[in-house]
Amino acid sequence: MSPIDPRLQEALDGERDPGELPTDLREAHARLIAAAQLVSGTPQLSVAARVMAEIRQNPARVEAGSPLLRSIRWLGRPVTVRLRPAWTLALAAGLAAILLLPFGPGGPVPGVTKFVGHFPGARSVEVVGSFNDWSRGALALNDDDHDGIWHADAVLPAGQHEYMFVVDGERWVPDPLAGRYVDDGFGEGQQNSLLIVRPAAAQP
Amino acid sequence: MRVRLAFALGLAAAPLTAQNGNPRLAGRVPPAALPAIDSIIAAAVAESLPTEPLVQKALEGGAKNVPADRLVNGVRRGLLQLRAARVIVARAVPGQAPPEGHVAAVSAALARGLPAPIVERLLTVAPNEAPGPALHAAADLIAHRFDPDSAADLLVDAHNKGLRAGRLLDVAVAADHELQRGGGRSPSEALAHVRAMLPNVPFPKRP
Amino acid sequence: MEHRDEAPREGVTEMVNNGAPDVEVVARVLGGDGEAFGILIRRYEPGLLRFATRMLGNPDAAADAVAESLVRAYRHLAQCRDPERLRSWLYRITGNRCRSHLARRHTNDISLSDAPPLADGSDTWGDLERSEQVALVERALAALPAEKREAFVLKHVEGMSYEEMAAVTGARIPTLKMRVHRAREALLAALEEVVR
Fold first, then answer.
1. Angstrom distance (rounded) from CA B207 to CA B201
2. Could you give the ipTM of this predicted complex?
3. Do B173 and C4 touch (CB under 8 A)?
4. What gap in Å lies between CA B107 and CA B119, rounded to an integer?
5. What is the pTM of this model?
6. Residue B176 is nearest to which of C4, C6, C12, comparing CB atoms?
7. Which of B203, C133, C141, C189 shows the greatest Cβ crowding within 10 Å of its Cβ?
8. What is the span of the domain harbouring residue B143?
9. pLDDT tens column, A137-172
10. For A110-202, which CATH superfamily applies?
């Protein structure tokens, strides 16, 4: 197997205009693309029925969160609550809190949140906050079109969350679009952004 | 209701994940800070205060590489805030053990600078509802420079007209909108406009 | 910078013309609406089945692998922390599953005896029936080691960027480029054998 001319590789990787290639390479380019097309047919079969049957038979999911909450299973009640640390503050603590929480059929309903930040020239942007135990590397924003606007969607439980952006791995920045801030309590006047997530079901 | 009560009682019987040497903190906070943080969390457990806000604060400090002494102070500040919150809740909702969800929510509101009397007033209006949204709405209004008592008045009105939870946040948004309108509206005018709309304040806009 | 009103940001939903976005469907499933997972199945199974069929060389094995992968994705949906990357996550699970299936066959290659017969060497490409052309390409892919086959399929059949491929395979982009380049060489060589 002989190596292909690098120009052809570049064209196939979208790094070079195939129109620039000499004729023989352009033919090879077309042949490869056509070959890929030939095996790109979508199969007619479907596994939907089979997968849904399995899910209906056994609807339990693996939960993220503390061992305490996973131990709820042994009480015999099928719990499909999706919980994050923010909610363990109510559950781990008390009876009255549980009775007061708005439990729907599946428990506290998570909401959809969009994070957006304008960081031109940044190499990486991530969100670090109470919803991911202030862990690094858990929620990265993307700037796929390289216009300096970074964004990510995340599913967060309804309730209050504190967070910051971390730019290029080291610069901690409150979210300018958050609209709410709270002193982080570590004595240097740094502010966390504050987010309040509504349940998705509650939105009009 | 009975099922839920049984569930809750069962939960109380289940062993609480031991807070001693909290496994979530291992490797996340400087070892020098761990004993002090553990003892602060142990105090919260002993006083029936929620511990999650304190664990979160410790994790946050670790992630931000806060030096051990300031980290411990931050967590301790959190405990003091929880204690203060519990006092307020007990005053506002007397005659029962303060619900821990309430304590955490009030603590968060105090951290945002909401004055204690405002917190108490809002709690008293709806002692059995999750207080977070009303308190955050009040804090939002105050952050937008509305007078705290007038803000509380508006939210009480809204609650009386049937608005709950996230809709109270919408009241704060509406008030801010009215304030931003051209023509140099004063805060009290803005609040009056929103009061006139109740209960039909706009829902949040979609992008 | 997207325009926003003065309101502090709340949880928002976006409706798009072709149905609710992944993040919203994931939120519903995690909120207890297991049936909503069906939306994700219908949305992603065509691509996943196509991918698995190329990897395993056999539509029935592919169906098994994809079904197992989707059930696993449902069970672990709470761990998909970035629903914007749901597609990559699903392909990642499916890719792993295919690799397990291949490992159980004690070979990473698709058995050539399962592969369709080669066209007569004296034909030119243009002479071949389309079905024979497909068979020839399939055979050429089947002859590739699994990693290179996977890289080629993700790039040229599933149309992924190298960034997404990195998320799916866990390999670094330079590694993936090398695998794709080698796969192209092998494929071109196989195609050229036919053309006289």
1. 18
2. 0.83
3. no
4. 10
5. 0.50
6. C6
7. C141
8. 112-207
9. 889 999 888 888 999 988 888 788 999 999 999 899
10. Immunoglobulins (2.60.40.10)
